[in-house]
């Protein structure tokens, strides 16, 4: 059974149609890239998959064992609290608090897990790293990443590529929505969202270097 099946998804905001007849199947080990211009509906699609907002029409079918991890748009954190407090708070919601997992992930992205530094003092890149960590720290097997390379330096980009490769090898699926195609990531499928419709595309060179 696929981890995710979207069938004829549509989304309207008032009189504006953002998504129209979107269908997609995601299997274990898939790494999908969805491209599209600003306002094309990439973030909206991820929010529907994550259950943050409902579709106006169509169905979202998830494997019963799916656990979704998501970094969509700007990560929301408790701004006055530390990274450790934020990650612990998020993990405790689902009773998946695993310090043994979170601390190595933080180190992998060059973040000090024990630091008392408040999140409001984090740079864009540091916040992006924290957002990536919270999307995978609970052993989620369907990971949704919205523009995950934003603000990342070369070392963090290398860490991200390695992480996605490991997730794929573990039989997990990753959906990356991004304007640019970051070529070091080994995507299994490329899709374009335009005019509210999702279509399969061929690989194109990335403009990120």
From TrEMBL:
It comes from the Bacteria. The keyword ATP-binding applies. Pfam families: ABC_tran. One of its GO terms (molecular function) is ATP hydrolysis activity. Residues 4-206 form the ABC transporter domain. PROSITE patterns: ABC_TRANSPORTER_2. Keywords: ATP-binding, Nucleotide-binding. InterPro entries: AAA+_ATPase, ABC_transporter-like_ATP-bd, P-loop_NTPase. The keyword ATP-binding applies. SMART domains: AAA (SM00382). PANTHER family: ABC TRANSPORTER, ATP-BINDING PROTEIN, SKFA PEPTIDE EXPORT ATP-BINDING PROTEIN SKFE. This is ABC transporter domain-containing protein. It comes from Schleiferilactobacillus shenzhenensis LY-73.
């Amino acid at each position: 059974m696929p981890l995710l099946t979207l069938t004829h998804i549509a989304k309207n905001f008032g009189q504006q149609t953002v998504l129209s007849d979107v269908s997609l199947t995601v299997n274990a080990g898939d790494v999908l890239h969805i491209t599209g211009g600003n306002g094309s509906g990439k973030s909206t699609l991820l929010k529907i998959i994550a259950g943050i907002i409902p579709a106006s029409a169509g169905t979202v079918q998830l494997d019963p064992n799916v656990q979704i991890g998501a970094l969509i748009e700007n990560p929301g954190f408790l701004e006055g609290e530390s990274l450790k407090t934020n990650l612990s708070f998020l993990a405790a919601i689902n009773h998946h608090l695993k310090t043994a997992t979170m601390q190595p992930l933080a180190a992998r992205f060059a973040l000090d897990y024990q630091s008392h530094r408040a999140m409001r003092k984090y740079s864009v890149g540091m916040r992006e790293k924290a957002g990536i960590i919270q999307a995978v720290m609970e052993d989620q097997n369907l990971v949704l990443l919205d523009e995950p390379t934003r603000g990342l330096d070369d070392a963090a980009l290398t860490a991200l590529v390695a992480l996605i490769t490991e997730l794929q090898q573990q039989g997990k699926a990753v959906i990356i929505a991004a304007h640019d195609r970051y070529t070091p990531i080994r995507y299994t499928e490329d899709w374009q969202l335009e005019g509210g419709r999702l279509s399969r595309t061929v690989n194109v060179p990335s403009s990120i270097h």
